[in-house]
Design a protein that fits this description.
Layout: H1 2-21, H2 25-43, E1 56-61, E2 74-83, H3 92-95, E3 108-111, H4 128-134, E4 142-147, E5 170-180, H5 182-187
Antiparallel strand pairs: 1-4, 2-3, 2-5, 4-5
C-alpha cells in the first residue's frame, strides 16, 4: 500500500513539475501579438504615431469643423475594423459600415465614454482604444488607428461569438459623419 501511495505521489509531483515548466500559452499568444504589432508599426512607419493611451493614431482627412469630439458625445460613424493582417472580422456587420464594394451602409450611432447594458450590446462600444482615438478627432475627420489588444478585447477569447481570438490587434479606419454634445442631445 505504501508503494502505491509513493508512486502515486511521485506521479503527481512529476506532472506538477512538467506542467509548471511548460511555457504559458497565454504568454506565447501575447508575445506573438507584440511581434506582429511591432512589425506592422515598423513596416507602415507608424512608430511616431503612438499616443499616451497606447494606440497608434494617424489623421487621414481633417475637416473644416472645429468641434472636437468629447466624452458623452453621440456620433454617427462610418468605419471598418479588421485584424492586423487586414482580414475581416467574421461578424462583419458589427465591425464595418462598408459593403465591401466601397459603399457605406447607414452610419452607425456610437456613444463616446458612455457605458450601460444597452449601449454595450454593440461590440465596437467595448473597444476602449476606439474611444481614445475618437476623442482626438473633430466632426467630419477621417482617421486610422492601430488598437492593441489591451485596448480592445484583451485576453478574452471571443472567437466563438465575434470571431475575435485572444490578443488580437485591431486596425480601424473611421469617419465621424455627425456629432452631438450632451446639450445638443438634450434638445432633441
Amino acid at each position: 500500500m505504501k508503494q502505491i501511495l509513493f508512486f502515486l505521489g511521485l506521479a503527481v509531483l512529476l506532472s506538477g513539475i512538467y506542467t509548471s515548466c511548460k511555457p504559458d500559452a497565454l504568454d506565447a499568444l501575447r508575445e506573438d501579438e507584440i511581434v506582429a504589432l511591432d512589425k506592422y508599426v515598423k513596416d507602415n512607419n507608424l512608430a511616431d504615431k503612438k499616443d499616451a493611451t497606447g494606440i497608434y493614431f494617424k489623421m487621414l482627412e481633417r475637416s473644416s469643423d472645429t468641434t472636437l469630439v468629447r466624452p458623452k458625445f453621440k456620433l454617427l460613424l462610418e468605419f471598418t475594423i479588421t485584424f492586423i493582417d487586414g482580414k475581416e472580422i467574421p461578424l462583419g456587420y458589427y465591425f464595418t459600415t462598408d459593403d465591401g464594394l466601397g459603399h457605406h451602409y447607414e452610419p452607425r450611432v456610437f456613444y463616446v465614454d458612455v457605458s450601460n447594458e444597452v449601449i454595450n450590446e454593440e461590440y465596437i462600444q467595448q473597444i476602449a482604444g476606439f474611444h481614445h482615438g475618437l476623442k482626438k478627432m473633430h466632426i467630419g475627420d477621417k482617421a486610422f488607428m492601430v488598437i492593441p489588444s489591451e485596448l480592445a478585447f484583451k485576453a478574452v477569447d471571443n472567437s466563438g461569438t465575434t470571431g475575435i481570438p485572444r490578443f488580437s490587434t485591431l486596425l480601424a479606419t473611421v469617419t465621424v459623419k455627425k456629432g452631438w454634445s450632451v446639450a445638443q442631445q438634450n434638445e432633441e
